[in-house]
Amino acid sequence: MELEYQGIMVWVEQRDGVAKPVSWQLIGQARRMAEKIGAEVYALVQGEQVEHLAREAICYGADRAYLIEHPVLREYRTEPYSVSTLDVIRQVKPEIVLIGATYQGRDLAGAIATHLPTGLTADTTMLDVEPNPSRLLLASRPAFSEKLMATILCKKYKPQMATARPGIFEALPRDDSRTGQIIRVPFDMKEDDIATKVLKFYQDEDRVNLEDAEVIVAGGRGMGGPEGFAALKQLADLLGGVVGASRPCVDEEWISHAHQVGQTGKTVRPKLYIAVGISGAVQHTIGMTGSDVIVAINKDPNAPIFDVAHYGIVGDWQEVVPELIKAVSAGKPAAAATGGASR
Amino acid sequence: MHIVVCVKQVPDSREIRIDTKTGTLIREGVPSIVNPYDLHGLEAALQLREQHGGRVTVITMGPPMAEKALKETISLGADDAVLVTDRKFGGADTLATSYVLAEAIRKAADTWGPVDLVIAGKQTLDGDTGQVGPGIACRLGLQQLTYVEKIVAVEGRRIRVERRLEDGLEVVETSLPALLTVLKEINTVRRASLPGMIAAARYKPIVWTVADFPDIDVTKIGLKGSPTVVSRSWVPEVRKVDTTYVDGAAELWEALWATDLPERLGWSAEEGA
Ligand SMILES: Cc1cc2nc3c(=O)[nH]c(=O)nc-3n(C[C@H](O)[C@H](O)[C@H](O)COP(=O)(O)OP(=O)(O)OC[C@H]3O[C@@H](n4cnc5c(N)ncnc54)[C@H](O)[C@@H]3O)c2cc1C
Ligand SMILES: Nc1ncnc2c1ncn2[C@@H]1O[C@H](COP(=O)(O)O)[C@@H](O)[C@H]1O
Predict the structure, then answer these.
(1) Average pLDDT over chain B, rounded to whole?
(2) pTM to 2 decimals?
């Protein structure tokens, strides 16, 4: 039977021709779901001079990339992006549309779901699909400050839409030998007809790439102030990593929001996560339990952070961190076995 | 300027606990508050009224008890507050909510004059989607500027704002009428004044029910008009792992070297990490 709506479409978000990692993460997840129901994965790429991203989308798992290039699409703006997205959705009729739950992604998703109209599940952290013949999207998301998870369905409307949190789903390894189709979609809109103008973009000065970091040394309220973070920075530098933080530290302005890990911050999955003076509230841990090895340093032996930590030190960071800096600076410990054993 | 602020009464989700046995929410004793982001939206509207004159109308869709939230907005200085309430509106998801709110904003324009600006919060504590704002903008054909951290200027029929993005701030300009969704960084919410509190105590919010919207499409409201349904909910398990407790930094460093981390992270024997 030929289905009217078929395939899973992922919106590829980009700035200056560089895709946001969540785009490839969602293509990876779309691929996994598509295998289950025998569907194709489509990427939607918009911008000015972004053909390379259509190609990249295929390398990351898309079967087809719809490409819309136009000067008015140089920067994200709701109107030209939603109009061109709607064009493609109406032509292609995907059964599922996935969009990163970033600021721009949420802006776009909210607009197009209303236009279509269809149901839209926000900020999902689990995505699955029921097998044939139902092919229902099982879109699950945290509710009530992460205290509950809920699965949301959209049974009667197509496409089924969801935004999904960055950092949760894993991208497939890039495969340059993958082949797929790039389909150019014509689009026209006059700049003069667009009311919104982007005048300037100020890149945050305190930039930190938590999502791609292999080592994160994160501090919490237990650091007591911005000075504590200087020690963490020293440790992070030695380990080739970056500094993360829990929310109270950001609220207290000890460090900028760019460093925040958790529900309202970033979801990270480094190889090593060292949590210092962090109690381990679920709003924090949801953002870091994907890490390979978690170390917790906390003076309270009952802190819930130890529930998710592979290694724990019960102690005051003011003692432990300087010692750790010393140990790391000294290099490989003499007592260390010539290693290779996994944890 | 005529500014409409969309406000929702929400349970303070920070206070909600879960009955881990049944996996249900314990709502008893959980206070109902005005969604925090929406108070920042109201504050932004009040500041614009101070600069440019005009009026601030607050609209909420919710049960009769949401009157309390509306009174709070009056105490802060809103000119009028409308409660859109009817059992038929109940069970609405974001699509149905934005439909009803858009109709209510049209009616507010008929009642008090054309609307120049609609302000919504970034998201609610309970719905937590941030979708209702864009939904309203789309239905009313308003320009949409989301995640606004600062209103830079309103000059003539143009508004300029700073929008927050993950990696920076964007300065954007658009034409009125427009809809903004605001972050808490946009301002500090004022406290109610004594005259404000007295005005609020006396104030009876304006109530609009389905009957007040003769042209409303009843298939688009409430549960019936909502494409999404919650099929299942559960309490997420905390991932518990076996913790190896070590006795200090030196021991930790040794323990880490006994794993495959040094290899995977490319730590070399000479310089350590
Ligand atoms: C809607 C919502 C969203 C949220 N989003 C996030 C989010 O994205 N990220 C986030 O992190 N939080 C978030 N939170 C907040 C979260 O609930 C917790 O309040 C927060 O994570 C606690 O931070 P903390 O562990 O640093 O502070 P605390 O809970 O105060 O813990 C401090 C810890 O430091 C330890 N300590 C103190 N002194 C020392 C010392 N000298 N040496 C060693 N240890 C010491 C203490 O024993 C304690 O365990 C959110 C909350 C809500 C309601
Ligand atoms: N029932 C409602 N009544 C009035 N405004 C609402 C309602 N629901 C949502 N809003 C507005 O839309 C914003 C986003 O809500 P949400 O999409 O639920 O996260 C809120 O901050 C409010 O400004």
Answers:
(1) 94
(2) 0.90
